[in-house]
Amino acid sequence: MKKILALVGVLTTLALGTNALAAFTNFSSGNIVIFRVGDGTQALTNTQNTVFLDEYKTNGTYVQSLMMPTNYFGANAPLISFGSGFAQGEMTLSQDGRFLLVPGFGATLGQNTNFSLPSVFATNQVPRVVGLVDGQGNINTTTAQTNAFENTEEIRSAASTDGTNIWFSGDSTGIKATTVGSALATQVEKTVTNVRYINIYSNQLYLTSATGIRDTTNIPLPAITNGLVANLPGTLTNGTAPFGFALFNLKGGSTPDTLYVNEGTISYPGEGNGVVLKYSSVGGNWVNNGSLGCGNAYGLTGVMNVQGGQTNVTLFITSGGTASAAGANTGVAKLTIGVDSSGYNADPGPGGDLYGNTVSLTPGGVAAGSVNIRGIAMAPNGNQPLTNKAALNNIAQVGPPYGIATVGNFGGASTFFPSNFVYSEANFGTANLNFSYTGLPSWLTASPASGTIVPGGSITVNFSVNGNVTNLPAGTASGFVTFRPGTTIFRPWSIQVNAFTLTPSTNFTASGPVGGSFTPPSQVYVLSNATSGTLSWTVNTAVPWSSLSATAGSLGGAGSTNITYSFNNTANSLTPGQYLDSITFSNATGVAVLNTITVTLQVGFGIFDDYSTYNQNANLAGQNGWLGGPNAGQTPYQVANGVLNVMGPGGLVCTTGEEPVKDWGTTTITTNNTPGGFVYAGMLITVSNAVVSASPPFAFEVENGVKQAFPVTFEFDAGTAIASGGGYVWAARKSTGATWTIGTNTVRTYGVQYMVIDVGDLANSNCWIFVNPSDGNPNDLFAMTADAHDPPSSGGVGQDAQGAEGAGGWIWGQFGAQGTCQPGFTVSKFAMSTNYTDVYNF
Fold first, then answer.
1. pLDDT digits (tens, 9 = 90+) for 6-38
2. How many beta carbons lie within 10 A of that of residue 693, not counting itself?
3. pLDDT in tens, 563-606
């Protein structure tokens, strides 16, 4: 069976979750290991994707799989991955060859991997984990980081010299350093924040980002000071998309002299985007020797060998590591194998082309195209002893690392949330562990409260809120639960008992043109006293452009009052842009903050939606002016984890769908009141799956109002269509009766987030789709080459916006026959306005 250690302990199969594996034997030296997401039946989402390490021979023959844990076992965390991401899972081999470094999320199956670390509720907190796997398949996931990342940042890659000192990277905060088993990390590099892949060669830390391949120049292996980074001189730095890389000493020196790096923006004929660039270090500069064609290259590793006096480099490259379950070209994940025998500072030439030396990956018999593969590394050869240690007798190993935090109302036991907290407690000693707990408050019950754990065993303990919580006074309290025996393993607890209740308690968003008015113009909050005595309250705002109907008062027992928040005349003088306010409700008697409401005001006509401010895990329709469309559908559009998810069963959308709509003002926008005559709709959008229909499956439409079932009089649409070589292209049309104009200039990648700007010409019925503009200047926007452009000469006749016609609303739509599943997509921000700069800046 698979073995999982907390440095020395053995994990039972219970920690594996619901996915059982056949017996695992040791990795074989010289084989390769690939990071796989999904078991072939799981939908590739951010809630339920198991990670497997698949071992292959160097000819691509499948050997066996090792599954990473999906539950806590003491201090060992689960390690799952984000199935619809694309830049995660960049696995490496430690420099001493003993361990695989496996990055992932410390979430259990069904839990969102991208929950924010500083969440209020312990059940929502997800550490980012660096797993160690040795040559015998022993797994150590005790390096569960709790301070390392901001918001919902990904963990992408990790590297180590010896399995003790660890460096890891994310997409927002650069590179951190830690040690095995630690929950805390030190920021060591933040000049480059969006880091993809890191690895160590000759005690030098190298990394790739969107601006090329770099190394830390002032501190080879930074541990304290922020390491300065610089692009390797001579390598590509503009318009690049590098991922995995490998370095070699072909001349036998002490530092690497030959570099192979996956580059996603360069096309090799017949293979789609993605090649492996070869560089050689000549006189301090890296000289490009040529490329090895490998469409959609992602993960990369390799070995060097000498045969008959000739030095060869064998490269192993993965593709199919995007958010799509399908790999490039063939619709399945792939491994490409090739040999470069040209040597140092020589062009690999046509004979070095790797394309064609490719095998499709169906590890363990999983269906082709049903899983997602990412990083690759050579197999480890180290091992750790599997025996328990007497030094750990009478010491509990406990996970997860987070404490207990619950919030509820005075006198209402059922209102406290979360109400249950689950921990795993394991024994890695050689003697029985007699466990118990101290420091439990009266309102918290442990089950079981005491007992015995045999060596190598574990228990699951539930801490639950009990009926005694109704006896607590209003206010806050905190303390620690200590896991006995010993005094060093503890978890903090805190409770907040609200004397007041507030309805609604969600954030407030409004928008409108310069000078007002704003929609909605105000929000009424109902403040209620949950106690039997009289309490005083205060309410405050942070900016001069808002007003409150009352700022202080008192309420008798069980009393309530209405407080109206509104925008005043100062708001009418605000220039275009987004403005933030906060409404703080406080219990003046108890000197405690009850709640803080964030207010977002968008000045500048249009729709400005940041879905992270919406109610999460809830339907889009019914929030902030969004209405359900004419088709009720079985797949309501959802907002979760800060994004709008247009996804159905299995990650796909099956018509008919909801097609929600939103108004952007009280009047229709026409050429008479729109200088320049253009409407701009911008979105940060990720298309997650390969398109399955012959025509574009989505319509993102600007229309002449809140449409529901009304005819379309003006629209410009953006959709995805099948494109050769994998990926997708954007398409445009001016009305539902027109023919689609399919863009062919650029093939876009599934799982990659793009800024998409749709432009509608109100007077002349043109529509354009631009991707990733450089700035908010409309002149620079129109200087770009559009991904798709549908002019009047294309044959489609769009309704212009003269007179009473115009643009005034937006609809998320979809096409396809009943039962046809289309790809899903996610949108994190959306804006529509007649002012392009406002849209871009938002």
1. 333 333 333 433 333 457 889 999 999 999 998
2. 17
3. 999 999 999 998 767 789 999 999 998 777 888 999 988 787 77
Where is mean pLDDT largest: 112-116, 158-162, 659-663? 158-162
DSSP string, 88-114: --B-EE-TTSS-EEEEEE---TTS-TT
Q: How confident is the model at residue 687 (pLDDT cuts 50, 70, 90)?
A: confident
3-state secondary structure of 219: coil
662 has which bridge partners?
A: 626, 810
Closest CA to 371 of 413, 318, 297: 318
Q: For residue range 163-201, what is the model confidence (pLDDT) as tens digits?
A: 999 999 988 888 999 999 988 888 888 888 889 999 999
| 697 touches 719 (CB < 8 A) | yes
Residues near 266 by Cβ (< 8 Å), separated by ≥ 6? 273, 274, 275, 277, 291
pLDDT of residue 64: 95
* 69 upstream amide cis, omega within 30 of 0: no
What Å distances lie between residue 677 and 765, 767, 779, CA to CA?
Answer: 10, 12, 14
What pLDDT shows up at residue 782?
92
- In whole angstroms, what is the distance from residue 312 CA to residue 318 CA? 20
- Relative to beta strand 475-484, strand 661-663 is unpaired
How big is the chain by its Cα radius of gyration, in Å? 29
Asked if 626 and 706 count as a contact pair (C-beta separation under 8 A), the reply is no
Q: Do the Cβ atoms of 213 and 204 come closer than 8 Å?
A: no
Nearest partner of 607 among 806, 775, 838, judged by Cα: 838
Nearest to 333 by CA among 318, 354, 311, 351: 318
Q: How far apart are CA 278 and CA 698, in angstroms?
A: 40
Please count the other Cβ atoms lying within 10 Å of the Cβ belonging to residue 488: 8
d(CA 92, CA 98): 11
- Give CA 13 to chain center in angstroms: 29
Q: Which of 737, 729, 733, 792 is nearest to 756 (CA)?
A: 729
d(CA 668, CA 713): 12
Whether the link from the prior residue into 418 is cis, omega within 30° of 0, is: yes
Integer CA distances (angstroms), 207 to 90, 178, 199, 431, 715, in order: 11, 17, 7, 45, 44
Q: pTM of the full predicted structure?
A: 0.69
Sign of torsion over alpha carbons 22, 23, 29, 34: positive
How far apart (Å, rounded) are the C-alpha atoms in residues 344 and 340? 10
To which residue do tokens 């407030």 refer? 508
Which one has a higher pLDDT value, 802 or 106?
106
Helix (H) or strand (E) holding 497: strand 490-498
- Nearest-angstrom CA–CA distance, 770 and 753: 14
Tokens of 596: 């803080």
User: Mapping DSSP to helix (H, G, I), strand (E, B) and coil, where does residue 834 land?
Assistant: coil
CB 107 within 8 A of CB 113: yes
- Report which DSSP code applies to 296: T
CA atoms 736, 677, 719, 611: torsion sign: negative
Within 530-613, strands assigned E span 535-541, 546-548, 552-555, 560-567, 577-587, 592-603, 606-610
3-state secondary structure of 529: strand
- Using alpha carbons, select from 29, 38, 20, 133 the residue that is nearest to residue 82: 38
Both structure tokens of 348: 């690999």
Helices (H) and strands (E) in the chain, counts: 2, 61
Q: Please state, as a whole number, how many other Cβ atoms lie within 10 Å of the Cβ of residue 107.
A: 28
pLDDT > 90 fraction of the chain, expressed in percent and rounded: 38
Taking the C-alpha atoms of residue 23 and residue 416, their distance in angstroms, rounded to an integer, is: 44
pLDDT at 235 > cutoff 90: no
Q: Closest by alpha carbon to 491, among 417, 425, 418?
A: 425
Q: Report how far residue 151's alpha carbon sits from residue 149's, in angstroms, rounded to the nearest whole number.
A: 7
CB 607 within 8 A of CB 810: yes
